[in-house]
Specification:
single chain; 396 residues; alpha/beta; 6-stranded mixed sheet; 5-stranded parallel sheet; 11 strands; 17% strand
Length: 396
Amino acid sequence: MSEYVRQKYGEILDRLQEPRMFIQVLAGPRQVGKTTLVRQVLSNIDIPYVSENADFADPTDTDWIRKIWQSARMRMKLEGSKEFVLVIDEIQKLNNWSEAVKREWDDDTRNGLNIKLLLLGSSRLLLKNGLTESLAGRFELIRVGHWSYQEMHDAFGWDVDKYIYYGGYPGPAAIVDNEKRWRRYIKDSLIAPSIEKDVIMTSNIYKPALMKQVFDLGCSYSGELLSLTKIIGQLQDAGNATTVANYINILDECNLLAGLQKYAMDDARKYNSIPKFQVYNNALLTAFKGRSYATDRVDTTAWGRWVESAIGTHLLSQASEYEYEVFYWKERSDEVDFIIKSKQKCIAIEVKSGRRGTNKGLPLFEKTFHPDVCFVVGTNGIDIETFLKSDIGRLV
């Protein structure tokens, strides 16, 4: 089978082929294929390039960026090239990387040197910090998120149920039939490095054990509401509501776990609401909470939860792209699973897959808030597979 090419390929190719204007930054969570995507692009451009990986550099070597940049300049001069592409992977591993990049980029700009820069990083949070500190106005961010159902279907032939349960990580797709091995890979090779290297080491986390517990708990409760008080009650390490809420926000920045807020007309009610946990990739829910595919698939209550969480991952995956926010709504026993709020529209979405009986939440929300659109995904509504293949940009 030929290597699968993700949709972002075209965008990256276009950016590298256009005249030099901005630093291009490719950011996203681990194991979603950023390096592979760039390799595919580089193999199909006529511009000479060099690709370096900061993973192999000493993080304290503040001169490393200058040296590889100078090598790129010399190669460009010796070859008589009119333009050149410099790629640096895992840029966030280097201390004070943004200041060094700013210095070299500005030198090339002053000297009229046509070196185009492409940076890759696993932690969007760290990239965001470095970019906003030193490189404001000099970069464009290309977000590469978790794999969608359409991508897993096209690349691996997965059906919708398989995607709902195992999520969108391409690396372990070939071993899902060995659930024990798959679960161990997700925890050891994906989750542990993401938490330990991309979150704890880069975000001034003073209680690493507490952060890990918040993450484990949040993944286990994806699709459910859990007050900060109850969260703290289930944690072994001591922590307060402010600390826990801050940790949830950091996990959200890293595209791992979100704490959705309750939809309300005023911000105070939104920010003080009980969070509804939502993973960015259903593999995280299954790794912590799943019993087995065969067992959970025939348990209507459990499967309904997996379906709702999968719909949530689909909504979160496109939120940054189309500039909308995702909320939930609940009033006593009435609830609406997801509310999409953009500058233009408010959309209410109820997910039905046999988990719940009659729910008056959608008509009550419509009567109270007058959203632009209300609809059901699942039973008596839009087919789940159809929705998971959809482009949310067509709605907002």
